[in-house]
Amino acid sequence: MRFLFAAALVFCVAGPVWPQQESRQDRGKRVVDEAVQALGGDAFRTLQDRTESGRVYSFDGGTGRLGAGLSAIVYTQYLKPVPGKYAVRIRQIFGQHQDEGSFLYTPEGAWDITFRGARPLDEAAFATYRDTGLHGVFYILRQRLDEPGMSLYSQGGDIFEHVPVEIVDFTDAGNVTVTVYFDRNTHLPLRQSMRRRNEQFHDFDVEVTAFAKYRAVKGVTLPLDTRRERNGQRALEMFLESEDVNKGLKDEIFTLPANPKSQTKGK
Questions:
Q1: pLDDT confidence of 232, banded at 50, 70, 90?
Q2: Is 57 helix (H, G, I), strand (E, B) or coil?
Q3: What's the CATH code, domain 22-254?
Q4: Is the CB of residue 236 less than 8 Å from the CB of residue 226?
Q5: Is the pTM of this model over 0.70?
Q6: CB-CB contact of 86 with 134 (8 Å)
Q7: Which of 31, 101, 139, 179 has its CA 20 to 30 Å from the CA of residue 252?
Q8: Which residues pair with 170 in a beta bridge?
Q9: Which residues pair with 85 in a beta bridge?
Q10: Distance of alpha carbon 90 from alpha carbon 83, whole angstroms
Q11: Residues near 182 by Cβ (< 8 Å), separated by ≥ 6?
Q12: Where are the domains of the chain?
């Protein structure tokens, strides 16, 4: 009896010993670390370039050229990370024979290139494109995790479309938050959402992007299907047939044609 009493007294004084619970920040970091490893670990974090081909559909008005869907090849080259900047170069070339024009995006600007020449894109459209890219989950995981002011916060677990998920908020130094749903089993991103200030209407646009059909290539795992909505309306769908990485893309791909015919914006 004296032994049981002593044991009970020690328990009352010391309290029960439970495993230490993860903080929201620690859980968020763990989920993100697992996601980076699922995407390829160091191979993903040091990814130099991507070459994607498939069909692209656009529903946002824009130039209207993509409304019916076009065959496309997309070249992406990652540049040295710059905090708060979208440090990539992207060339989208359309048509089965790559003869239906292209878009060129660089940190300095963007152009619609056709046989008529190169037309600078509308500044508002380019700003939206750049902001979407800057806050894309793959760009964040590849380029921005070590950025000053970037914080991770777990919203816990849930069930999304019958799939167990871990939900993590990424908030950068500009106080923009991107919420990402990670598959709890594969650890891969399934969905992301963010709010963007609409300067024209003085409210917020809600942008949601979903990812599916992941495929591994050269040690890096990336999605073949991407769907994006803005305010509940379809904005973009991309269905890739092939993807390759680290091909050593040349600067010429991301350079305006020599002596192009220039066009005034909006014409």
A1: confident
A2: strand
A3: 2.50.20.10
A4: yes
A5: yes
A6: yes
A7: 139
A8: 152, 178
A9: none
A10: 19
A11: 31, 34, 35, 165, 166, 167, 168, 188, 189, 190
A12: 22-254
